[in-house]
Amino acid sequence: MMQRMQMYHVVVSAEVSMRIAGVVLAGGRSSRMGQDKAFLDFGGKPLIDHMMELLRDVGLKDVYVSGDIEGYPSIPDTQSFNGPACAIADVMAHLSQYDGVLFVPVDMPLLSAGILKTLTQSKAGGYFEQWPLPAFITQPCMVENAYSVQKLLDEQEVTPLAIPEHHKAEMQNFNTPDDWQKVTQNEC
Fold it and tell me: Which of 76, 102, 134, 167 is a good FRET partner for 114, with 20 to 30 A between their CA atoms?
């Protein structure tokens, strides 16, 4: 007589912490701005410092700059000035010891820690619909010739998230002195 074996599955709920790094994308030319955006004054300090502090406010201990910026923990771009998608692919290869990397562009100073935490809570990575940056990426990016952040996110199957209406004003970036003036007038 054959005995039926019963199997029991025990489900244990536990919060698993991910090892996440933060990266400020700051390797662009800033040609339309006429000066390096990273060093514009925002709230009495260089914009790059503001963005690095923002990533720390999210709870990230390891924060880097993409681009070769002296005096900052930086990850140089292997292909200078080829855009943020190439920089993201470079950074992901360099920071493979992390479970995920949260990317913020240097030119979005109105972002809040709250909106960025929303991204890091998406275990498969995330970005906001209509805005490819900021983005949280959890898989290695072994993409060659990555010239579009959106294409890179699609290929990596990063989850597009709906942005809460009350956070949409944070999604402003700037490229020109006129844009910068508008952003700083909205400074929180």
Answer: 76
What residue segments make up the domains of the chain, in order of their start? Answer: 20-185
Per-residue HEC secondary structure of the chain comes to: CCCCCCCCCCCCCCCCCCCEEEEEECCCCCCCCCCCHHHCEECCEEHHHHHHHHHHHCCCCEEEEECCCCCCCEECCCCCCCCHHHHHHHHHHHCCCCCEEEEEECCCCCCCHHHHHHHHCCCCCEEECCEEEEEEECCCCCCCCCCCHHHHHHHCCCEEECCCHHHHHHHCCCCCHHHHHHHHHCCC
Contact 25, 107 (CB under 8 A): no
Which tokens is 38 given? 């990273």
Q: Taking the model in full, what pTM does it have?
A: 0.86
Residue range 20-185 forms a domain whose CATH class is alpha beta
11-25, 58-72, 136-150: least confident range: 11-25
Out of 7-16, 28-37, 68-77, 139-148, give the one with best mean pLDDT.
Answer: 68-77
